[in-house]
Amino acid sequence: MSVIAPTGAGKTTFVGGLLAATRRYVLAIDPKGGDSTLGGLGYERLSSCPGPKKLGRMVYDNDDNLRPSRYIAGPMIETKADEPRLRETIRQFLDAAFDMGDWTVYADELQLLTDPRMMNLRAEVDRILISARYKGLSFVSSYQAPSWVTPAASKMSTWVAVSCTRDTDVVNRLAEVLGRPKPEIRGALEGLEEYSWLLVGRNPRDPVRVTLPDYLAPVT
Question: What is the pLDDT of residue 65?
Answer without folding.
Answer: 97
